[in-house]
Every structure is written in structure tokens, then in C-alpha cells.
Amino acid sequence: MGINDALTLLILRQLVGESNVLQALLEHVSGEGSSDVANRHGTTKYIVRSLRTRLYERLGSPSLAEELVIYSVPIILKVVEPVASKNVCKLCGRTGLYLESHILNSHRDLVNHYLSIVKSELKKMIEARAVNR
Ligand SMILES: [Zn+2]
């Protein structure tokens, strides 16, 4: 539980090539209805809401989850390179429906690598805000 777990969920989405879901989630927590953002980004409101719920559960707070999405999703979309598409893992050729758990279990070093990059970018952003205040 906690910020690492929440960020890992978001990073895995990008690794499996579902940046559209992250984009939809970002616009949803910024105030738009889940149906509208889902339609616009070619996903479903159920997928967007379930990701939002899983983040709430991991962080224990809706407002913290929303803040984390607003700050971290733009970073993740920029720095994390997808390694899977259409249910195929490009790192090892495995196919299947549960690539997020496959990547977490079999390619955890890569996930941790991106986790540390995203956290350091977040830290820079927070420090920059503190300086400009
Ligand atoms: Zn793989």
C-alpha cells in the first residue's frame, strides 16, 4: 500500500501500451465525466473508474489519488516507453491477457527503474514549486 504501489499501477498501464486509459483518467480527475473521457480516448468508463478505485484503495484517500494522477501521469506519459501492445510482451514474446501482472512479475527491474525515474521527476517538481512560492 502507498505511493509506490499507486505509481506502479499507473506505470504498468503505460508499459502495456494503454496510454489512452491514463490520458482518460487524467482528464476525469481534472473534472470531466468518466463517460466523456472514455469515449474520447477509446476506452470504457468502467476501466477508467476501476483504475481510479484501485488508486483510492492503495492511497486511502481520494484527494491524494487525484493529486498523484494530476502530477504523475504527465511524467509517466513522457518518460515510460511501452513494452507491450495488442497483448504481446515485446521483451520476451509472451502473449496473454494479463500482461500487467506478467510485466510486474517477470520484468520487475524495468518497473522499478521507471518507478525511481518518475519519483525523482515528482520530487524535482515539488522542489521547484517550493522555490517559486
Ligand atoms: Zn515479457
Provide the gyration radius in Å: 15 Å
Name every ligand kind in the structure: zinc ion
Please provide the ordered H/E string of secondary-structure elements.
HHHHHEEHH
Mean pLDDT rating:
94
What count of structural domains? 1
Strand order of the largest sheet: 1-2
Helix percentage range: over 70%
Which overall shape is indicated by the principal axes computed on the Cα atoms? globular
Give the low-confidence spans.
none
Q: How many strands in all?
A: 2
**Biggest β-sheet description:** 2 strands, antiparallel
End-to-end span in angstroms?
31 Å
Descriptive overview:
- The chain has 133 residues and is mainly α.
- It has one domain (3-132).
- It is 73% helix and 3% strand.
- It has helices spanning 3-15, 19-29, 34-40, 45-59, 62-79, 99-106, 108-132, and strands spanning 84-85, 88-89.
- A two-stranded antiparallel sheet has the order 1-2.
- Strand 1 and strand 2 form a beta hairpin.
- Helix 5 packs across helix 7.
- The longest helix has 25 residues, at 108-132.
- It is globular and about 50 Å long.
- It starts with a helix and ends with a helix.
- The relative contact order is 0.16.
- Bound molecules: zinc ion.
- Zinc ion binds next to helix 6.
- Zinc ion is lined by residues 89, 91-92, 94, 102, 106-107.
